[in-house]
Model the fold of this input.
Amino acid sequence: MPRLDPQALVEHLDRLYRAAWALCGSREDAEDLVQETASRVLARPRQLHGQDELAYLMRALRNTFLLTRRTASRRPQVRATLDQVDAVEPRSTTRPEAALAHREVFEAIAELPEDFRLALVAVDVVGLSYQEAAAALDTREATIATRLHRARDRVARRLADDDAPEPAARDAAREGSGSERSLR
Amino acid sequence: MSDPMNPNRNPIEAELAGVEAVQAPDSLRRAVRDAVCEAERVPARRGLRIPRPRRLVLAGGALATLVLVLAVALGGGGSTAPSVADAAQVALRPATAPAPPARAGGHLLTASVDGIAYPTWTRTGWHYVGARSDTLAGHRIHTVFYTAPNGTRIGYAIAAGDALPLPQARVVRRRGVAIRVLVVHGATVVTWRRDGHTCILAARGVDAASLVRLASYST
Done:
């Protein structure tokens, strides 16, 4: 049975990082998640069981995400008091407006309900087929299609609605005029 | 925002196309590459046992020498040492080995790096629980992990060999030793030098003052 080539982690690192950012909603947590996933995957030889390498890694990322988040939720957190502490290696970008747009997209995805988020990340961010995504997420293709459709709509609405009125006001306006632009 | 004329069209296609330009940061790339190299090390050594034609070995050796000479000549002999931030990230990873036992007397563990022994810290409320060893850009980093009763964890890493470059950070002095305090991807990190070696404490959910206090016990 074919085994996962560890170099696949390097080859697909950018995709995994984007997926992790979309799952976690922050760059720092994304880095931790990818490192933790790599550490787990490399701990022993992995058999692909007929999966594509990228699909296998997506599954590993998702499992690590769920596991680490549950572990973290059980652990009491002590709030760090980091007054007057300098950040190291400040990130810079030559295109701050692009960086801001990327962050907004990832944050919008990260706000989705978990099942929707995983479907969107698997298909739209990682680039898996519906069939591969269904296998990686332990569900059916039809379920992936449904979750993906709803997830995309929610993200589109979130990105478009930044300056829009609150939902209650919007619903009232829709009922009143009937001419509001459809966001579905 | 589905297109009513084409219900299969992805309404966030443009936004997703934009984020495809996002790449993993260099620190993460280095960490993953190092981990992959480490994982592949054993199979690579096995591969060397396969007999090869002598001339290929000689040609390979000559090529390697040439590459080394060029690297030194063109690279100006620049340092390839990992940064403190890189080493701190290792200290935030999970333990891969059990904790070393304590020495007689109870203040130090049997584990040490180039003569610098790890403390037990038992009187401070922290308990040694595990260890791991990594190699970053040729530097061996040994880490011992400690936990508090509430589950928070500290990694105490010592880099073998030459000291790592000093990071830009806030400096506090304890017992005459400069302890640098910084934040690396949300984790609190303190670092100092002892006997020419870099020592690092890294933790999440532990305040900087606590780490500095623990560091001062270990200088």
